[in-house]
Specification:
Elements lengths: L4 H4 L41 H28 L5 H39 L4 H26 L8 H33 L4
Helix pairs in contact: 2-3, 2-5, 3-4, 4-5
Amino acid sequence: MQHSASDLELNYSDPRYHLTTRKEITEQSFSGLFRVDREGWPLVPEFIMWPSRLQRLHASILDASDNLIDGLQNTLDQPERSLQEVLGLTGMRKLGLDLIEHVEIHHRTEDKHVLPNFLQRFPNLRRAISLIENDHQFLDNAMDVARIVFGALAQPAVDKSHVASALASASSLDRLLKRHTHDEENILIPATMSGE
């Protein structure tokens, strides 16, 4: 089947595709995607290789994100200038910056190695791979903002408004990471296990 260039290009600003507005990506989202059967994945022998590692890596990122939100909420609930608040601010600043670094390293590896290999092996996934690449760019920008907010938790004049801003930033980043990792798995894992 011949596709025009416009058929193959992804309009990332389209609400169906943008990370902030889209619903779950499934095999109906793009032509060429493989069937998504998340419950059946562990039953496929190939799952134990790369796909399960990808899911564990994503789970560790999302666990850190959940811990950051819980820790910031706990810090927000502590009396101002208390030892618990000071320790919470120090810990949550470190956890937030570590989370961002972890995601950035993961995305650089995917952008440099994983996605080009998928594109070479599965050219029919071009639009879906473009979606992942656009997600990475959008997440990079969101993490740049979050890095500033989390870094500010170390300032001497930090107050509850700073902690509340960090909590809002962490919650927003968490929603983006959950949508992105879920959809990335829906695109990449079925292809890996397809036997093609």
